[in-house]
Design goal:
single chain, 600 residues, alpha+beta, Ubiquitin-like (UB roll), 15 helices, 28% helix
């Protein structure tokens, strides 16, 4: 073998002496970097649960605190703040907003998000080491709820503008100066409260909107200068035909009104009021016309035509005054015009008072005072016109039942007993008017039958009257007028209605039933009139069917029932002592009220 094979090489042969040194030069930097990285990571870990040292939220310091400590402090201090009302102000008016109903909430967890937690971002570590200052709080806002609360605030704050205006106190011009109004700028206020409610000092100054009046200072002064002061500067003379009259400053001021007209004021004059004042100043300026009249003649109702008069047209008068107050002479010439009546001939014709639609009669007993009352009642009834839809009232038409109104004392019933009173017998007038209204198909409004039956009246279908407490009334339920005619003669009392037929009426009265016999009563009244038993008591039904003549439709089918008490024997004086004398027998009494004031 050769020497090479006999002497193997060393394991370290082939390594250059410089090579190990080159390799170890890399190890040191790597170790240093690793150490630095570990230190950086350790610092990041140490800072991960600490808030930056100078951090504050809405003035609450949380620097250096752990996440949980910071959360607890924010909940404690800012949570309490969010439960307190927020004071706000606009102009010189203060109010408060309750954060709860306004939908304002503070979110502590969201506010702390990113302030803690592991991060190797050098910017984050820098902030955590050297501070971040004020941190903006995270809040939640329910915009709809906040706006609703601000609208409530606006109700306290809102001030309507004062419109410029002119009035008169007597002949003195009174000016209302215009003033701006104020209201909350809801959009601006909502944005401000949302952003600042937790961070800015209270009260929060809310933005407002100025509301300008529609009638400003310039318009008011112009109206005062051009119209108000000239109006009351002196009287205005009116020439109408050959007549003259003056309207005084006081009259002109009383009739004047200033009304808004765009951005200005317009003078308006009460034309009818001026016309009335003009006629009062000189009655010869107008000649009155006469309304049409429907009068009763021997041939029935006839129309007396209306007549026109002459007078000043109110609107032309007002226009003349407006022009005169700015003229040098303060004088106006107004033409006379025809003055139409309030109730024209055509109006009278349209009422259709053309023919007799119903009549009714009842006999009268021989009793001159009573008959005198009936004649007076008939006199007041005749010619009465009941217009469509109106209610006929007996007491309003023929009352009051007094000596001054032409009535005399006669027999009547009071408290169920015969006596005397002024207007005795007028229940016969009431019965007459009840029956013509009933049989003509009119709507019954008020009536009451007697407590005892008088045989001159239909059973049940009659009516008494008590001044001040009981009337006899029916409504004209047609489109035509109804005229009443009434008279008294030896045969009895008669009434008829004139109109245009609208209703067909079928009426009926039943036989008597539930008979009760008379008894005896005692009447201690000083004006007592003794009575003998006259007629029994009974119950009766009566009814009517009302049909529309034109359509044939039944518009009313009614049945009424009334019970009469007997005509008892009446003894004037107090009842005898118990055990002696007569007593009442078989009478259930009446209501205790007067049958009428002026009754049979």
């Amino acid at each position: 073998m050769s020497d090479e094979s006999a002497n193997p090489a060393s394991p370290f042969e082939g390594f250059d002496g410089e090579e190990p040194r080159r390799r170890y030069r890399w190890v040191i930097p790597v170790v240093i970097v690793a150490l630095l990285a570990a230190a950086y990571a350790g610092l990041a870990w140490w800072l991960s649960d600490r808030v930056a040292s100078d951090a504050t939220v809405a003035g609450v310091p949380i620097g250096g605190l752990s996440h949980d400590e910071a959360h607890q402090r924010l909940e404690t201090e800012l949570g309490a703040v969010t439960e307190q009302p927020i004071s706000v102000r606009i102009d010189d008016v203060s109010a408060t907003i309750d954060p709860g109903p306004a939908g304002l909430q503070f979110d502590a967890a969201a506010t702390l998000e990113g302030l803690t937690g592991f991060s190797v971002d050098p910017r984050v570590l820098w902030d955590r080491l050297f501070g971040i200052g004020a941190v903006e709080p995270v809040t939640a806002v329910d915009e709809e709820a906040l706006r609703a609360e601000l609208e409530l605030v606006n109700q306290d704050i809102e001030r309507a503008p004062v419109e410029g205006f002119i009035t008169f106190s007597g002949t003195t011009v009174v000016v209302t100066e215009p003033e701006d109004g104020l209201q909350l700028d809801l959009d601006g206020a909502a944005a401000l409260v949302s952003a600042d409610w937790l961070t800015e000092p209270h009260p929060l100054e809310l933005p407002g909107q100025t509301l300008e009046p529609g009638i400003g200072e310039e318009a008011v002064q112009e109206a005062r200068r051009e119209y108000a002061e000239p109006l009351v500067a002196g009287p205005v003379t009116i020439e109408a035909g050959e007549q003259e009259a003056e309207l005084s400053p006081a009259t002109l001021a009383e009739a004047a009104t200033f009304v808004p007209n765009g951005a200005g004021l317009r003078l308006e004059l009460a034309a009818d009021q001026l016309a009335e004042a003009l006629v009062e100043s000189n009655p010869d300026i107008e000649t009155a016309g006469e309304d049409a009249r429907i009068v009763l003649t021997s041939d029935g109702p006839e129309i007396e035509p209306a007549t026109t008069g002459t007078g000043v047209d109110p609107e032309l008068l007002a226009e003349g005054v407006r022009e005169a107050i700015t003229a040098d002479r303060r004088r106006a010439v107004v033409e006379l015009t025809e003055a139409e009546p309030e109730f024209s001939t055509a109006d009278a014709e349209a009422l259709g008072v053309n023919e007799e639609i119903v009549s009714f009669s009842t006999p009268i007993p021989y009793d001159p005072p009573r008959t005198a009352n009936l004649r007076r009642g008939a006199e007041l009834l005749s010619g009465t016109l009941v217009r469509p839809g109106e209610i006929f009232s007996l007491t309003e038409t023929i009352g009051p039942f007094t000596l001054e109104n032409g009535y005399v004392a006669s027999g009547m019933v009071s408290g169920g007993f015969a006596t005397e009173g002024i207007g005795g017998g007028l229940s016969q007038v009431s019965t007459q008017m009840f029956n013509v209204g009933y049989l003509a198909g009119m709507e019954l409004v008020e009536h009451r039958a007697h407590t005892r039956w008088f045989d001159r009246y239909p059973r049940g279908r009659e009516a008494t009257v008590v001044a001040g407490s009981l009337d006899m009334r029916w409504r004209n339920n047609t489109e035509y007028g109804v005229m009443i005619e009434a008279w008294v003669n030896d045969e009895g009392m008669h009434t008829r209605l004139w109109s245009t037929p609208v209703w067909e009426v079928d009426d009926w009265i039943s036989a008597e039933r539930d008979i009760t016999q008379p008894g005896t009563e005692y009447n201690p009244h000083p004006q007592c009139v003794a009575e003998n038993p006259h007629y029994h008591g009974f119950t009766v039904d009566y009814g009517r069917t009302v049909t529309d003549r034109e359509s044939g439709e039944v518009v009313l089918d009614e049945v009424r029932t009334h019970t009469y008490r007997p005509w008892h024997r009446v003894i004037c004086g107090s009842p005898p002592s118990p055990g002696g004398g007569d007593s009442r027998n078989g009478d259930d009494g009446d209501s205790g009220g007067n049958d009428n004031n002026g009754d049979d």
